[in-house]
Amino acid sequence: MNTVSDQDIPRKVAASQGFQWVVAGFRMYRKNPLLLSAAFGVLFGVVMALGLIPVVGGSLSELASPLMVAGFMAAYRALDDGNELELPQFLAGVQGPAIPLMTVGAVQLLGTLLIGQVMLGMGFDPQALMTAAQSQKDPAEMQAVLNQAMPAVLTGLVLFTPLIMATWFAPALILFGGARPATALGVSLKAVARNWPAMLVNGLTLGLLLFLAALVPMLLGLLVAMPVLFGSLYASYQAIFAVWADDAPSAGDTVASL
Prior knowledge:
Elements: H1 17-29, H2 33-51, H3 57-80, H4 92-95, H5 98-121, H6 126-135, H7 139-168, H8 170-177, H9 181-194, H10 196-214, H11 222-241, H12 251-256
């Protein structure tokens, strides 16, 4: 009988896999593009609508975002298994482990707020940057504003990186693996760190895709790019966490036991 040790999960994959995940995401998207794009439009609209609620809107939007990610993970799992895609699958996060997923959202929210405070404490003034950009100041003055903001921006980038790493796979680990939020965050951080070359290639490819999508009027390109991004996320989860041997424990069982 084949056994899989905890050290095998998460797997380490080749850097070239980062691009292949995007290709795989696009292939799965092509199986039902209309429903995937429509579902993203609706769910994204709901998240944005929550953000418009006075005082608590931003917090609710952040808490809800892992629920949307989990819904797309469930949808792509159905497509990957050869099943028909149905709307209830996009509500897998709400109907399933909603509290653990929202806990991940709370970590995202708290981390973002803390990092924002650190940046503000270092003199970062986003309003000043926007004003300088819109007023087309003298290049020397603009450079001075950028020089003042750069230390805070670099610090924010350094602090945001582990936060993104920890939350990247967390919704899928909770949904598919039954992991507790703290476990999911830790395992996700380990997985991204262990596969940083592939994740870097994946991030650059997705960044280019999102940039091109943003050029489409009314941001309609995002209706394609974002479902492909979620498909890429699912493909990367499968490559790093899934166990293919029939008699081996599932990825979920292994992760849940950590």
